[in-house]
Amino acid sequence: MALLSVDNVTKRFGGLVANQSISFDVGDNELLAVIGPNGAGKTTLFNLISGFFPPTSGTVRFDGRDITGQPSHKVAAAGLVRTYQLVQLFSQLTVAENVEIGSHRVTRGGVGGALFRPDWFRREERSVREGARELLHFVGLEGQADLPADKLPYGRQRLLEVARALAAKPRLLLLDEPAAGLNTQETEALADVITRIHRGGTTIILIEHDMSLVMKIAQRIVVLDFGKKIAEGTPAEIRAHPDVIAAYLGGTEVVDA
Amino acid sequence: MPSTIEILQSLVNGVGVGLIYGLVGIGFCVIYNASGIVNFAQGVFVMLGGMFCQVLMSQLGLPIILAIAITVPLVALAGMAMELAIVRPMLHRGATLFAIILATLAAQIMIERITLLGFGDRPRTFPDFTPGGPLRVGEVAVGYQLFWILGCGALLVVALWLFFNRTRTGRALRACSQNREAAQLLGIPVARMMLVAFALSAGLGAIAGVLVTPTQYTAYNVGTPFGVSGFIAAIIGGFGRAGGALAGGLLLGVLQALAIVALGAGFKNVAALSVLLVVLMLFPNGLFAGFSLGARVHSK
Amino acid sequence: MTSRVTTFTEPAALRWQSVSPAAGAAMLAVLGLLSSDYVTTVLGFAFIYAIFCTGLNFFMGYTGQASFGQSAFAAIGGYGSAILCTDLGWDPVLALFATMALSGVAAVIVGYPTLRLRGHYLAMATFALGLIVYEITIEWTSLTQGYMGYAGIPPLGIVGFELPTVKHQLVALVVLALFGVAVANRLRRSRFGRALAAIAGSEPAALALGIDVARYKLIAFVIAAIYASAAGSLFAHFVGFISPEVFGVTMVVQSFTMLYLGGIGTVWGPMIGAVIVSVLPEALRGLKEMQDIAYSAILILVLIFVPRGLAGLSSLFARFRRNTEPL
């Protein structure tokens, strides 16, 4: 049974239809990519799934539960964690602290715990710190743990955002153009991290422009164009799909894989 | 139970003071549109207007026309000083929105206290612009000053419209409010426009202060109530629209006047502030959001 | 609306950093005890304000929100304690807790709709809340005695034992202020504190990590209100007299001066700022009339030139080191 199923979802902004009757499923431990030309409605789709605004019609089910229109923090608390196209770090805090905040979903300490600091609270805090250190190691940022986040080079800020999302132990991770603005080397490092996250058992949906990245790591691809789903299939199928080729050649981008 | 006469009388008074709120509200909008900043010190210009005018008349024995002619540019200068000394350096250093609001509030306190030191805490007033009155309509008394307020208010609205639509500077200001970066690219001196906005806004406040003082009084601390009421007027009108602010001011003035009849004078500020909270929470785009009383010039 | 927030897990210098301001506060207290009652009184005000600002810091520093109306809750505390102790003969400590609870409840009721607002609207709405309470303290004369003020409030005491002199009370105030800072420090270095820092940093990111932004903002607002209420009550007991002016706009500007001067978002900044801003005008005697002008001028200068305050200077070098065991 699917972990996430998007069923007939439509979003209108005034007269503009950003998403029209989109449906697809994501199975457990799958790595799905959503691609499409600029303005195809990919980020809108992410915003609908992650609860940043409700769809005009249609339903989104996560882990068997209807999460349509639920506020984003509740969706995240259920285990569906996203990153942003424009990095949204806590720029005044250190790299390690950014990741520590990520563990919010999987910890429980409140005001009382913080005040009285019982054993379980101390253990939890310790595991938060240790977990953050491990994750920084996982993405290769262990050397920069105490640096303010905004002092990291851009490519590493991307990795930090992924590490922070991982700290929430997501069941489904939504990555919104994680490779945007990265050079080839950084993209490769990111691809490696994503592959290892996936291998670790986390389901991933990836929005990406970088075709070579998508073709390399995705198991299945959904293609959007003008707000509609025009194709769905394995990388090989998508590469040969006439509508996809038309959509990309009709625009300004070329499938370069 | 208040009589019909009482209610009518309070409505008449409410229209007068409401127009004043509207002018202060327009002052808020002018600065907000040009800079994206809400100047919490707006009310202090009203106080300074009344105060300077009164002092010039009583201490130097100047005729009222001359006193006004000196007061308004003087207060406009104070507005420009505030822009140059506080707002500009803060914007330049990338201060947060909230820090700038706070700085304007601090400026208000500072100006109030300096006024207190200079002129004392005695409430001051001066007579109506023209002697005589009030005019009696049935049993309702209408002071001559109300006509001055209405007349000058109407004149100002026309003048503002001409300024924003017919002059280069006015049109440049409107361009800034629509998109500051684009305006900059078009060669509009955005920084100088902010200075103009502060001068204009302060001048408007001063005129409001001069107009309203004969109907009540001025003292170092009348700024906050006028500022808050002006802000409420601007909010009711859907922040950023001059016409909306004017309408909002009239509505607020009338509501306040009725509140005085119903609850007593003491709670009129509580009533006004409660209106503010209700409007903020229920109609965050202003009561008149659906109507086009003026171009909405600043998109949030 | 992000104010710069310093790291919430204090770096390696934590122990040194917390010990030295605490020792400084204790030294000031001793100094106060050895000096004239006048100096003691000034220091007493400083520590009352330290409590107020430490609370405000939760909402404005840690969470990065704006409230211009926190004086309202100080008024609830002050007038609540005055009325309960003077008219109803309550024990001051009991009244203190009762008014803190009342303020907390009021903050929930008021904060729930208000905190949905942002930017200018939030600033003006909270400002209006402060003004509404201020107007009520003036106009509801049967309850508050209006401009006349409320006199004859008994000094602070614990179950029947009054603290008879200002010097006794100063000791109590210093202890309470340090306690307040300790609570702030513990809350900040926790999952709760991290959630607040996340909101100050980026609301979209906080939401995407499952942080209930609205709820945490409200909690921070309520904590700030409870601190403010305690400060108001303590002021009433310390001076024995309150009037509407005590909780007016001046209080707001004064507390912001302290917060920004000491360093907004830091644990000790509010207390350091409160002491400096309270003592400075006394050191420059003859400035009495100019006090408010001086506050405003200092605040404007700080906002323009050192928006992170004095504490910002020290944390700059400290933040690169890190405490491995902050618990």
Percent in strands of chain B: under 5%
The chain pair forming the largest interface, with residue counts per chain, is: A-C, 49 and 39 residues
Q: Distance N terminus to C terminus of chain C? A: 31 Å
Tally of strands of chain C: 4
Write down the overall mean pLDDT of chain B. 83
Q: Work out the radius of gyration of chain B.
A: 19 Å
Radius of gyration of chain C in whole Å, from Cα? 19 Å
Strand content of chain C: under 5%
Spatial arrangement of strands, main beta sheet of chain C: 1-4
Number of helices of chain C: 14
Task: Name the shape of chain B in a single word.
Answer: globular
Spans of chain C of at least 5 consecutive residues whose pLDDT stays below 50 are 1-14, 315-327
CATH architecture of chain C: Orthogonal Bundle
List the keywords.
heterotrimer; B: 300 residues; 2 domains; 72% helix; disordered C terminus; C: 327 residues; mainly alpha; 14 helices; globular; disordered N terminus
Textual characterization of the structure:
Chain A is α/β, with parallel strands linked by helices and 257 residues long. Chain A folds into 2 domains: 1-79 and 170-257, P-loop containing nucleotide triphosphate hydrolases (Rossmann fold); 92-169, no CATH class. Chain A has helices at residues 42-49, 72-77, 95-102, 111-116, 119-139, 154-167, 184-199, 211-217, 235-240, 242-250; strands spanning 4-13, 16-26, 31-35, 57-62, 65-66, 80-82, 172-176, 203-207, 220-225, 228-233. In chain A, the strands form 2 sheets. In chain A, strands 6-7-8-3-9-10 form a 6-stranded mixed sheet, with helices on both faces. Chain A has a 4-stranded antiparallel sheet with strand order 2-1-4-5, covered by helices on one side. In chain A, helix 3 packs across helix 5. The mean pLDDT of chain A is 90. Residues 289-300 of chain B have low confidence and may be disordered. In chain B, 51% of the residues are buried. Chain B is globular and about 60 Å long. Chain B has a two-stranded antiparallel ribbon. Chain B is built from 11 helices and 2 strands, in the order ααααββααααααα. Chain B has 300 residues and is mainly α. By secondary structure, chain C is mainly alpha-helical. Chain C has one domain (14-315): ABC transporter involved in vitamin B12 uptake, BtuC, CATH 1.10.3470. In chain C, a hairpin with a 2-residue loop joins strand 2 (157-158) and strand 3. Chains B and C meet through helix 3, helix 4, helix 9 and helix 11 of B and helix 5, helix 11 and helix 13 of C.
